[in-house]
Design brief:
223 residues; alpha/beta; single chain; seven-stranded mixed beta sheet; 8 helices; Rossmann fold
């Protein structure tokens, strides 16, 4: 048995035991696939982890950068209290349309707002609104801009807020300082920022599973 098959089998076991799909989650994946969206959603295990982290944080306001079909958005939205709100930013109008339908079916249509457009422009517009700080931020968009998204996340949060940055291993290429891959360079810049920023304390974790060899960074905003 190959290593990847073992990873997949373990992920399947954990998912069936601890993060089983329900109708809304299964339909979100099914409809995203039917609409031709790329199959790059977080795994069920990671979706459950995001939910638990947001609940542990006691998050009332969540910002997600990168919506896709809204699968991770559903997990995050379920962590919110009755008065909680979630804002998610999506570049592609078609993806946003699918996500809105998935969120509505999951009963989160009034909780989660999907904004369409380049995330950096949306974040700049958001800052002008002077919103209440976000308690939890999930960054899972184009990797070339990871450091910029992280900078905005710090600006839009408060001491004690939590930031999760997805897909940081890049198949192991994150260690290559000479890489010309924009996704690798953007991820390395974001990790450097976590290491150096006076308002951030964080770490990164390698993972294996249904998405192969991957990982995420976790940071807390400090005073």
């Amino acid at each position: 048995m190959t290593a990847s098959q073992i990873w997949n089998d373990v992920d399947d076991h954990f998912t069936a035991l601890l993060a089983p799909a329900d109708d809304a989650l299964a339909a979100a994946l099914r409809d995203s696939d039917a609409a031709g969206l790329p199959p790059i959603n977080v795994t069920p295990n990671q979706g459950k982890l995001l939910k638990l982290l947001a609940e542990i944080q006691g998050a009332r306001r969540i910002l997600e950068i990168g919506t896709l079909g809204g699968y991770s958005t559903i997990w995050l939205g379920r962590a919110l209290p009755a008065d909680g709100r979630l804002l998610t930013l999506e570049y592609d109008p078609r993806h946003a349309e699918v996500a809105r339908a998935n969120l509505s079916r999951a009963g989160l249509g009034e909780v989660a707002e999907v904004r369409v457009g380049p995330a950096l422009a949306s974040l700049e517009d958001l800052a002008k609104e002077a919103p209440e700080p976000f308690d939890f931020v999930f960054v899972d968009a184009d990797k070339a801009n990871n450091a910029h998204y992280l900078e905005w996340a710090v600006r839009l949060t408060r001491p004690g807020s939590v930031i999760v940055l997805d897909n940081v291993v890049r198949g192991g290429a994150v260690t290559d300082a000479a890489s010309t891959d924009p996704s690798v360079r953007g991820t390395r810049a974001a990790l450097d920022l976590i290491a150096e920023h006076p308002a951030l304390d964080g770490t990164a974790v390698q993972t294996v599973g249904g998405k192969g060899y991957d990982g995420f960074a976790l940071a807390r905003v400090r005073a």
